[in-house]
């Protein structure tokens, strides 16, 4: 992790580290990249997967590609926002299972939001990031 990015989980707040994120991320002045919400659309135009798990996997691949494009790694992610059309314990668990692998020990600040709709009726999950750019 960059020495310009600090993670905090104060004892006065719930221990977010137990489930893989941080309550607070502090970043020193540096370039920031604001990555638009990634959805289950491939660059090659393949059809959107139908299951939540498959959509999450494609979203994670798109997040990986976005990080590669700016020369950053998961430990450079300052904040993530996850939007889910059917936010349940099951969908949250599936999303966090895949994100935990993707984050590989990084613990950005994270917010999960249940929404009525996304950009297309077949989309079930969207994730955006704020990243400390290389």
Summarize the model shown:
The chain has 134 residues and is of the alpha+beta class. It has helices spanning 52-69, 89-103; strands at residues 5-8, 24-27, 32-38, 77-84, 109-114, 125-132.
Biggest sheet: strand arrangement: 3-6-4-5
Question: What composes the largest sheet?
Answer: 4 strands, mixed
For the record, what is the CATH homologous superfamily label?
Answer: RutC-like
Overall tally of structural domains: 1
DSSP summary, beta strand count = 6
How far apart the termini lie comes to 12 Å
Rounded Rg: 15 Å
User: Helices and strands: which structural class?
Assistant: alpha+beta
Provide the succession of SSEs: EEEHEHEE
**How many individual helices?**
2
| Shape descriptor | globular
Binned, the helix content reads 10-25%
Overall pLDDT, averaged?
92
Indicate the CATH architecture.
2-Layer Sandwich
The CATH topology name reads: 60s Ribosomal Protein L30, Chain: A
Uncertain segments are none
Strand content: 25-35%
Would you mind describing this structure in some detail?
This protein is of the alpha+beta class and 134 residues long. It has one domain: RutC-like (60s Ribosomal Protein L30, Chain: A, 2-Layer Sandwich), CATH 3.30.1330. It has helices at residues 52-69, 89-103, and strands at 5-8, 24-27, 32-38, 77-84, 109-114, 125-132. Helix 1 runs parallel beside helix 2 (89-103). The N and C termini lie close together (12 Å).
